[in-house]
């Protein structure tokens, strides 16, 4: 559908001409037929000439119609191109009055064409540039060439924009005119202004930055700032600008690479990836070596060798600090790997952060296999107690564990679990565990303990042997000396011929003295123990105690074969002492003695139903006399451990076991 105000298309001129010719031929034929029948020859010729002239006039008329139609078509085409062109067109008089403009021009000035025709174009130029526009218009009318001007325009509502004016003088019958084309260049002006601002900002940043910066093009320095000159120890730009990039660096870097190769590789990588960071050793003009960090950023230029922007930063101090840190780290790692302790560190998530060689030996995993993994994943056999200890350490508690058994290998260890703190932090950032194998220490301590025990046992054995020997000597003296003397006295008193008999009371006293002497002799050294063994000696002991009013049940098992004399004497004396304690202190009505020998182990217990006591009251208190202290010594001498189970009013059970 044609746009509004578009003129109607003119009729086809060729069709109109053909129609006109057909009508003329029809008239001529009619006129010729009439004159041939009714007029003389002259009349006929005159008519024919008139007819020919009429036809010529009609053909001229047809030609005029055709020209008019073509002119109207050209005008319509011109108006279509002019009015709907995407470029703003204006026709101005020498006074600058708008005679004609297209739709785009009206839109550019922000109103309709009817309000713009007849107004001065200068009204739409900002006041400060109207004089410039007047000079431009004068140049257009004063020359035959196209004149250009860019200035700031304003729409009818005052909105400002930039316009590019192209003006050409055209001579018309009514006088010269200016054909003016106007392009809106606001976006270009803004882009140009932004580019200029950006360039100025870059230039300011580049020139005044405290960070050294240089520009390279084709491996040659084309520009630098003052900070770059200060870094190299100079103020002369010629010392840097125009020089190759490697001019102020040693031929080879500390790692042995050629500096020129390093720079070529860095430039190539920067052009390929868009950026490159590199560290290089350079030399100041004073000869001092400086480590710099260079960040290369290429700047693409259309059709030209790219410019590479490089930022330099002096990292000499940081490089030295890193080297010292690396040396410290290597020393720490060497120290950790060569220590006799296993070192394991974890973070707050219980992920392993340190694991030395000794830890690998203890737990069977190399550091590479466990670093970064969780403790539960690296050591799945750890008990829940280990994770609880770690959580306690993360809460700030220091934990010491002693003489724990390894789970995956024989031996024992001490562990010290210590919370780790970062500087300035109040909460632990991790846990350090120090594990020391104390198997050998425990073995030596055990050997020392056993040695001391053997020494004590030897001393006790010597004491007991001396006691037994002395008892035996005293018993023999009582039996063979005093006992025989008393017996002879009894026989003498019982009556020899011619001697009067003493009173019966004296004989009874002698009987009691003889019986007491025999009892003392038996208690000092029971000959039945030496002659018949532990079983018979215990049976005889029970028989001797029974008359005292304490019923004793004796349970013996596995004593058919004799035991070693120290064991038999020790067990006999222990049972004897325990029964004496029952009779003296327990107020018991019954006692039970149990002695069983089975599979190389001897079990002994003495039980009563007496008043009992509190075993806790005996802890830490010296035991006077030969009572329980003597029992304990004898049991320890035999390599056993005494167990006491007693409750007030509920009786007492005292037992021990021996390996025989």
UniProtKB/TrEMBL annotation:
Coiled coil, from the record: none
PAS domain segment(s): 328-394
Gene3D superfamilies associated with the record: 1.20.5.1930, Histidine kinase-like ATPase, C-terminal domain, PAS domain
Catalytic activity: ATP + protein L-histidine = ADP + protein N-phospho-L-histidine
InterPro entries in alphabetical order: HATPase_C_sf, HATPase_dom, His_kinase_dom, PAS, PAS-like_dom_sf, PAS_4, Sensor_HK_TwoCompSys, Sig_transdc_His_kin-like_C
Domain Histidine kinase: from-to ranges: 571-660
Keyword ATP-binding recorded: no
E.C. number(s) listed in UniProt: 2.7.13.3
PANTHER family per UniProt: NITRATE/NITRITE SENSOR PROTEIN NARX-RELATED (PTHR24421), NITRATE_NITRITE SENSOR PROTEIN NARQ (PTHR24421:SF10)
NCBIfam families in alphabetical order: sensory_box
Protein name: histidine kinase
Source organism of the structure: Hymenobacter segetis
Lineage start: Bacteria, Pseudomonadati, Bacteroidota, Cytophagia, Cytophagales
């Amino acid at each position: 559908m044609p746009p509004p105000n578009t003129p109607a298309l003119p009729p086809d001129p060729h069709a109109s001409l053909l129609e006109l010719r057909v009508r003329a031929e029809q008239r001529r034929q009619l006129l010729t037929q009439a004159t041939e029948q009714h007029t003389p020859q002259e009349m006929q010729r005159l008519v024919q000439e008139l007819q020919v002239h009429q036809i010529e006039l009609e053909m001229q008329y047809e030609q005029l119609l055709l020209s008019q139609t073509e002119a109207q078509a050209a005008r319509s085409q011109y108006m279509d191109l002019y009015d709907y062109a995407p470029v703003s067109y204006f026709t101005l008089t020498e006074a600058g009055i708008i005679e004609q403009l297209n739709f785009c021009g009206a839109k550019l000035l922000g109103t309709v064409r009817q309000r713009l025709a007849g107004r001065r174009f200068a009204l739409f130029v900002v006041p400060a540039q109207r004089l410039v526009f007047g000079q431009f218009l004068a140049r257009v009318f004063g020359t035959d060439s196209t004149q250009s001007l860019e200035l700031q325009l304003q729409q009818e509502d005052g909105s400002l924009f930039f316009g590019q004016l192209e003006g050409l003088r055209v001579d018309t019958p009514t006088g010269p005119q200016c054909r003016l084309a106007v392009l809106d260049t606001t976006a270009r002006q803004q882009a140009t202004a932004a580019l200029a601002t950006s360039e100025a900002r870059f230039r300011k940043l580049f020139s005044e930055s405290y960070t050294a910066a240089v520009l390279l093009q084709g491996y040659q320095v084309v520009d630098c700032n003052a900070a770059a000159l200060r870094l190299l120890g100079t103020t002369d730009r010629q010392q840097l600008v125009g020089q190759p990039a490697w001019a102020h660096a040693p031929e080879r870097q500390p790692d042995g690479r050629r500096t020129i190769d390093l720079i070529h590789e860095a430039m190539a990588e920067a052009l390929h990836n868009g950026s490159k960071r590199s560290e290089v050793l350079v030399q100041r003009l004073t000869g001092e070596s400086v480590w710099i960090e260079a960040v290369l950023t290429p700047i693409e230029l259309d059709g030209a060798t790219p410019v590479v922007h490089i930022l330099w930063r002096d990292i000499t101090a940081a490089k030295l600090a890193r080297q010292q840190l690396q040396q410290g780290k290597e020393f720490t790692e060497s120290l950790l790997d060569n220590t006799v302790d296993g070192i394991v560190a974890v973070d707050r998530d219980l992920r392993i952060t340190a694991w030395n060689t000794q830890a690998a030996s203890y737990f069977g995993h190399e550091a590479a296999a466990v670093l970064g993994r969780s403790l539960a994943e690296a050591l799945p056999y750890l008990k829940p107690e280990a994770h609880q200890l770690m959580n306690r350490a993360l809460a700030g508690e220091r934990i010491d564990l002693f003489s724990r058994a390894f789970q995956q290998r024989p031996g024992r260890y001490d562990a010290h679990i210590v919370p780790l703190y970062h500087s300035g932090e109040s909460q632990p950032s991790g846990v350090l565990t120090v594990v020391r194998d104390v198997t050998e220490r425990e073995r030596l301590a055990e050997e020392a303990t056993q040695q001391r025990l053997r020494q004590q046992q030897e001393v006790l054995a010597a004491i007991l042997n001396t006691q037994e020997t002395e008892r035996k000597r005293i018993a023999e003296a009582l039996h063979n000396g005093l006992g025989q003397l008393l017996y002879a006295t009894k026989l003498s008193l019982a009556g020899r011929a011619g001697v009067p008999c003493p009173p019966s009371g004296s004989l009874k006293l002698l009987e009691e003295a003889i019986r007491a002497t025999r009892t003392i002799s038996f208690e000092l050294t029971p000959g039945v123990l030496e002659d018949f063994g532990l079983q018979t000696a215990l049976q005889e002991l029970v028989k001797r105690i029974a008359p005292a009013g304490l019923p004793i049940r004796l349970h013996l098992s596995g004593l058919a074969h004799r035991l070693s004399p120290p064991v038999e004497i020790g067990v006999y004396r222990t049972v004897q002492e325990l029964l004496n304690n029952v009779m003296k202190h327990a107020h018991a009505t019954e006692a039970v003695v149990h002695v069983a020998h089975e599979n190389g182990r001897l079990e002994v217990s003495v039980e009563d139903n007496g008043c009992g006591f509190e075993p806790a009251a005996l802890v830490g208190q010296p035991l006077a006399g030969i009572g329980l202290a003597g029992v304990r010594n004898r049991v320890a001498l035999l390599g056993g451990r005494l167990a006491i189970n007693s409750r007030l009013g509920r009786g007492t059970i005292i037992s021990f076991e021996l390996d025989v």
